[in-house]
Design brief:
Elements: E1 2-8, H1 16-27, E2 31-37, H2 43-52, E3 57-60, H3 65-71, E4 74-75, H4 77-82, E5 87-91, E6 94-98, H5 101-111, E7 120-124, H6 128-139, E8 144-149, H7 152-161, E9 168-173, E10 184-187, H8 191-194, H9 203-206, E11 210-213, H10 222-229, E12 234-237, H11 239-254, H12 261-270
Parallel strand pairs: 1-2, 1-3, 4-6, 7-8, 7-10, 8-9, 10-11, 11-12
Antiparallel strand pairs: 3-5, 5-6
Helix pairs in contact: 1-11, 5-6, 5-11
This protein binds NADPH dihydro-nicotinamide-adenine-dinucleotide phosphate.
Length: about 270
């Protein structure tokens, strides 16, 4: 039996154990999947111990993704670009790491027939999640990406980091709106989770075809409600991304890519 876990702090509400157990059932693979709380100060020693004492792979969530990147002996190109990883495993005595968040988002957009090629996108937020999805988004050749963040310096730093990808990138203050019509608005802020108000210029929704909120909840998220109230009809939340990024981790560990549709419907009912 293969043994996996998700590590983070807090961790008890994580959906990962359910998602991975369902993948395993679907593929007829025998696994165990735990949720283990680790404080950042204990991260290095505890994580090494877990990987040395029987765990075949670990998912890493907040606030440990950067620490995991630093712990790993070898990191995928995506992980190196983002400086944070969500998947660890051992191979030939080395700790290997990858980041599957960006791939998870692209897969979910694809499942929803959304194309980013030549699109004009807005990304709200410039934290870890924005950084983890930007390289993947840019790889699909949107025409333009505008990043709006409460702290302008952070969005400017993201623009600077990825300015040579052949895509027009700009950072503007949170309360402004980019010129011209938009394709989609992607929310990567943590406002839904912290319960804070998201102060933004709602005119961006009037210009866009769809919205995507990386956060998710049983009901429509506050961000998607704002988008709907402003006239957007096509709104997605981040549950599909969560399930798809998990599927990519599962494939890294087992060599088998689980189908996600049934698991996504099932996980919705667990919220
Ligand atoms: P960070 O703490 O790194 O970044 C938070 C970002 O949100 C910052 O840009 C911050 O702005 C902004 N922000 C926070 N509160 C507000 C507010 N009230 N108004 C405007 N902006 C605000 O968090 P992460 O980037 O790591 O995670 C963000 C969210 O993404 C989480 O809620 C998480 O659930 C979700 N996520 C979902 C995934 C999925 O699979 N669906 C995967 C990964 C993340 P500032 O810089 O000014 O502080």
């Amino acid at each position: 039996m293969k043994k996996f876990a998700v590590i983070g702090q807090p961790i008890k509400h994580s959906l990962s154990p359910r998602i991975h157990s369902e993948f395993a059932k679907e593929l007829g693979i025998d696994i165990s999947y735990d949720a283990i709380e680790i404080a950042p100060k204990d991260f290095n020693s505890t994580t090494k111990q877990l990987l040395e004492n029987g765990y075949d792979g670990l998912n890493v969530t907040l606030p440990l993704k950067e620490l995991a990147y630093r712990l790993a002996d070898e990191v995928s190109e995506t992980g190196r670009e983002t400086g944070a990883v969500n998947t660890l495993w051992k191979e030939k005595g080395k700790i290997l790491a990858d980041s599957t968040d960006g791939k998870g988002l692209l897969e979910d957009l694809l499942n929803n027939q959304i194309s980013l090629k030549d699109s004009n996108l807005v990304i709200l937020g410039a934290g870890g999640a924005a950084l983890s999805i930007l390289p993947s988004i840019l790889s699909l050749h949107p025409q333009k990406v505008t990043i709006l963040n409460r702290t302008l310096e952070k969005s400017c730093a993201l623009v600077d980091k990825f300015k040579d990808r052949g895509v027009q990138l700009q950072a503007i203050p949170m309360k402004e709106a980019p010129e011209g019509s938009l394709t989609g608005v992607i929310n990567t802020t943590s406002a839904e989770v912290t319960g804070e108000d998201l102060i933004l210029n709602v005119s961006i929704f009037k210009k866009a075809d769809w919205s995507y909120d990386l956060s998710y909840s049983k009901e429509t998220t506050s961000f998607n409600q704002l988008a709907k109230d402003s006239g957007i009809e096509v709104c997605f939340d981040g549950l599909g991304m969560l399930v798809s990024q998990a599927a990519f981790s599962f494939k890294i560990w087992t060599g088998k890519q689980p189908p996600t549709n049934r698991v996504l419907s099932l996980i919705k009912s667990f919220l």
